[in-house]
From TrEMBL:
InterPro entries: Metal_Hydrolase (IPR032466), Urease_alpha_subunit (IPR050112), Urease_asu_c (IPR017951). It is an enzyme of class 3 (hydrolase). It comes from Enterobacter cloacae. Residues 1-104 form the Urease domain. Its main location: cytoplasm. The gene is ureC_1. One of its GO terms (molecular function) is urease activity. This is Urease subunit alpha. One of its GO terms (cellular component) is cytoplasm. SUPFAM superfamilies: Metallo-dependent hydrolases. Its EC number is 3.5.1.5.
Length: 104
């Protein structure tokens, strides 16, 4: 699914040239992404018709009771590992193990 792509300004480059002339491409967002996305809004925003005011193209869902949700409550994102980065070697450790140790 294309979310954004350059429009116009395409130029063919000479196969013997190192670089071609720069062009001023204009990027345009696609319309497919809005059909496959869900925008969460508060109950107050929904009551005020924010979807129509902002002309949202995506489907909306009203959220409630989310102020008390903690990371541990998220069934697919409940881990809270201890992550450290060595400032000299930039080695990243997750719960004391490097990425190489964890994947094998």
């Amino acid at each position: 699914m294309i979310a954004c792509a350059p429009m116009g300004g395409y130029q063919r480059l000479d196969s013997h040239a190192a670089t071609g002339p720069l062009s001023s491409d204009v990027w345009r967002t696609g319309c497919c992404a809005s059909r496959h996305r869900l925008t969460f809004v508060s109950q107050a925003a929904d009551a005020q018709g924010i979807t129509q005011q902002l002309n949202l193209q995506s489907a909306t869902a009203v959220v409630k009771g989310c102020r008390t949700v903690k990371k541990a409550d998220m069934i697919h994102n409940g881990l809270q590992p201890n992550i450290t980065v060595d400032s000299q070697t930039y080695e990243v450790r997750v719960d004391g193990e490097t990425d190489n140790q964890r994947t094998g």
